[in-house]
Design goal:
With 257 residues, the protein is mainly α. It has 2 domains: 68 residues, 434 Repressor (Amino-terminal Domain) (Orthogonal Bundle), CATH 1.10.260.40; 150 residues, no CATH class. Helices cover 43% and strands 9% of the residues. It has a two-stranded antiparallel ribbon with strand order 1-2. Helix 2 packs across helix 3 and helix 7 runs parallel beside helix 10. It is elongated.
């Protein structure tokens, strides 16, 4: 299948050498993108969208836009240049532990809420909060894998919490499949969470906690931060500002208003 990049490049009469230079890559790398031999990184997709003045999602879906318009949601964010967002995940382990205990006390008893669901709940709590408020809640790092985002060092942190008597890990079955569940042994220390953070977590749990692990994995595969990352790499928080309507929660003002 012909890559949209090649179609757009030829339509704009841009040579491979010229486009590669503008992207900061080699012509050979560009050729691999055009031939479908390599997946786009989020940085390359951003640059391509700017160069060809098309929606970010065109390169994800490999589909030509109906009309050539620059439609990335990030362009609608009004933010003073002096107010810089921190794009490096600021892990707050103490807060993570309390958020996890809060989640487990609220929805952990649901039969569908095993390890996979917990992974995705943590991911969407973190990334949705960043999109909505441009601040980090837990700031955990998440790796891209085939089943969706996975929090880094989760197993290590669970072991610490078990040793401290915060929770217990148990093995069970869910529809005849092996499942890892976590039973809370303590209540969460809510002093580490603001009212806004608690309200956000409650909304996320109400919205997502009844979904199965597969449903949440499939949903995460529609999220631009996950799509734009390379397999095994840490997912970029900043990519939430390129989300499409499938996963975006923020209402962006129209720049033409």
């Amino acid at each position: 299948m012909t890559s949209i990049v090649k179609t757009l490049r030829e339509r704009e009469n841009i040579s491979q050498d010229d486009l590669a230079a503008r992207l900061g890559i080699t012509r050979q790398t560009l050729s691999k993108y055009e031939n479908g031999e390599s997946n786009f990184s989020s940085d390359i997709i951003k640059k391509l969208a700017e160069i060809f003045n098309v929606d970010y999602a065109c390169f994800i879906d490999n589909e030509m836009p109906l009309t050539p318009q620059y439609n990335i949601v990030k362009t609608s964010v009004s933010k003073p240049q002096t107010d810089m967002r921190i794009n490096i995940p600021q892990e707050n382990i103490a807060k993570f532990k309390q958020v996890l205990l809060y989640i487990l006390n609220k929805v952990g008893a649901k039969p569908n809420v095993g390890q996979t669901v917990i992974y995705k709940l943590l991911y969407f709590i973190d990334f949705d909060f960043y999109e909505l408020y441009e601040e980090q809640l837990m700031g955990l790092r998440y790796l891209k894998n085939n089943f969706g985002p996975t929090p880094v060092d989760f197993a290590k942190l669970i072991k610490e919490m078990e040793q401290n008597g915060d929770l217990e890990e148990v093995k069970t079955k869910y529809f005849n499949r092996d499942q890892t569940k976590y039973l809370p042994r303590k209540k969460a220390d809510l002093s580490l969470l603001s009212a806004l953070e608690l309200k956000h977590i409650d909304k996320e749990l109400e919205r997502l906690s009844d979904k199965t692990g597969k449903e949440l994995s499939d949903f995460s595969h529609k999220d631009i931060p996950w799509i734009g990352a390379k397999l095994g790499d840490v997912i970029d928080y900043e990519a939430v500002f390129y989300r499409n309507n499938d996963t975006s929660l923020r209402e962006y003002a129209d720049e033409n208003d």
